Amino acid sequence: MWDYFKIFSNPKKFREHGVLGMNARNYYIIGRNNKRSLYPLVDDKVQTKTLADKININTPHKIGVIEHQYEVKDLLKIVDGHSEFVIKPAHGSQGKGVLVIKNFSDNVFTTASGKQLGFNEVYQHVSNILSGLYSLGGQYDTALIEELVHFSDAFQNFSYQGIPDVRVIVYKGYPVMSMMRLATKESDGRANLHQGAVGVGLDMRTGHANNAVSHNMPIAIHPDTKADLMTLQVPMWKEHLMIGALAYEMTGLGYLGADIVLDKFRGPMMLELNARPGLAIQIANRRGLKEVIKNVDKYYPQDLTAEQRVDYVLNNAT
Predict the structure, then answer these.
(1) What is the SS3 string spanning 140-164?
(2) Which of 47, 112, 117, 283 is the most exposed place for a label (fewest CB within 10 A)?
(3) 53 inside domain
(4) Is there a contact between 73 and 118 (Cβ–Cβ < 8 Å)?
(5) 50, part of any domain
(6) What is the pLDDT of residues 9-53, one digit of tens each?
(7) Whole-number Å distance between alpha carbons of 170 and 112
(8) Are 258 and 168 in contact (CB under 8 A)?
(9) Which pLDDT tens digit goes with each residue over 231-263?
(10) Average pLDDT over the chain, rounded to an integer
(11) Are residues 87 and 207 in the same domain?
């Protein structure tokens, strides 16, 4: 087992374990494989959803889009007939600005935590999104309204309130590393490792848990639900990896992260893509990305379809 403290406090140990650092990721991996002109395809959630629909990647259904301040007054018309939905900034990150409405009736919005909001409060939230309060770089933004995800009962005991998701790292079209992020009380129901969520490394062949961490330290039991994390198994594993492989076809990005949720009714759905995915996934898996990336460059075949690449991973990943 890795000695986490020694590895991540010692640059030599860091390199010996093949851990990909931020500078190497930015220069050697992102700089060489991701054209900056392609970034808008994943930085804008509305554009990402439109592209995904064209090649039949499963995503939450779009209810509406608000681009201008004068359109906010039409919010009630947009959500009319929908009792639950999510409002999110098109250019947001790390879950900031995401408002989950579990019930909407009689002009009362009830959030995932049970808090009741009036129209004026939700109006203000949407206005804040448009002003860029939650967007990357503070730029003017768009509010995306989409259907609420109902996460699978398979993860009922593994996440505290929030929806768990699978992060898949894709390199040159091959899914190469993955983890599941589980919300905790500390993370306020968000699947964000920096805010205290649990990261569970997943075996690339099976989708079964192989390791788990919280605040970069190994754990075996979820701090709130007390679930045995090593029993976690992601259903429909090939379908999860297919979303990652197809995301490469969709964007042309040679290195990306795909965030996927398992809906109890619609199966695996792509939430968003990232052209600059973080590196904590290595800690969750107790394995560095350098070795995996070298293997793809040296041994993995080229010119395969998305499904052929996924099948190759399922049969050959180590």
Answers:
(1) CCCEEEECCCCECHHHCCCCCCCCC
(2) 47
(3) no
(4) no
(5) no
(6) 455 555 667 899 999 999 999 999 999 999 999 999 999 999 999
(7) 31
(8) yes
(9) 999 999 999 999 999 999 999 999 999 999 999
(10) 92
(11) no
Q: Structurally, how many domains does the chain consist of?
A: 2
Q: Are residues 194 and 279 in the same domain?
A: yes
With beta carbons less than 8 A apart as the criterion, state whether 116 and 104 touch: no
> Is the distance from CB of 150 to CB of 263 less than 8 angstroms?
yes
What is the model's pTM?
Answer: 0.92
Q: Per-residue pLDDT tens for 64-93?
A: 999 999 999 999 999 999 999 999 999 987
Residues 6+ apart with CB under 8 A from 200: 179, 180, 181, 182, 209, 211, 212, 229, 232, 284
Within-domain flag for 52? no
- Shared-domain flag, residues 138 and 163: no
Residue keyed to tokens 């990647």:
57
Domain at 302, CATH number:
3.30.470.20
pLDDT at 5: 45
Count of residues in the chain: 318
Q: First and final CA of the chain: distance in angstroms?
A: 17
For residues 108 and 122, what is the distance between their CA atoms, to the nearest angstrom?
10
CATH code of the domain covering residue 75: 3.30.1490
